[in-house]
Amino acid sequence: MTPALAGVIPIEDPGDPRIAAYRQVRERDLVGRKGVFIAEGQVVLRRLIASPRFAAASVLIDRKRVAGLAPMLADLPADVPVYAAGQAVLDAIVGFPIHRGILALGRRTAAPTAEALLAGLPPRALVVALFGIANHDNIGGVFRNAAAFGADAVILDPTCCDPLYRKAIRVSVGAALVTPFARLAPGEDAIALFEGLGFTPVALSPAGEAPLAALRRPGRVAVLLGAEGPGLPPDLLARAQSVRIPMAPGFDSLNVATTSGVVLHHLAFAAG
Known about the structure:
By secondary structure, the chain is of the alpha/beta class. It is 32% helix and 21% strand.
């Protein structure tokens, strides 16, 4: 038996106090977790283990998956407990059929201010700034695209939902654990912040002044994206360089995660 397998703690009772943090996952997602979050799935667990910003507090897995996950589990610090349960017990713990059979409890760390995060980025940097994004699927999709196209950071306004919500992390395929992010303070002037640190703010809007194809990559650029429907606040649009994605007649907007992918792909490979 390998050390990773030897250290696994069997759980036979869904009421075992050692796995209390994993009980009724969906209900606890809704009310929020103080200082911790739930990560789900093999790829996400791998990213959590490798994350420089977050750390696993414990792991709970289907006992049938222990042997296959042994190499990954061996990379966990020695003081991180790994619990294993049968499928029926696992389902009873989390409150629904957990087909992936892999959960981890992660610890949050103090987030930097938006100014501190932006100031520490390199002279050539690509940032995504989100305003009013309340859908966890969209947040996760944007983070996935940000990681895929090499964005240096994601900035969220105070009304955006939590990138460390379980579903957002899962949709991001763990990118929310590795892509740096920070929140604007309530009332903070995003345009002034970006411009003061040398970033060109580029706002996406169906009414944008120029087509995306005409946009050349600034050295430091912040891509501003708003919620579907209301879009970006008018004051941000008025003060930023605005661009649009041309579409077929009868359609004038895309899902915000899709939009982020189109724009980030262009900027990742655009000359400038």
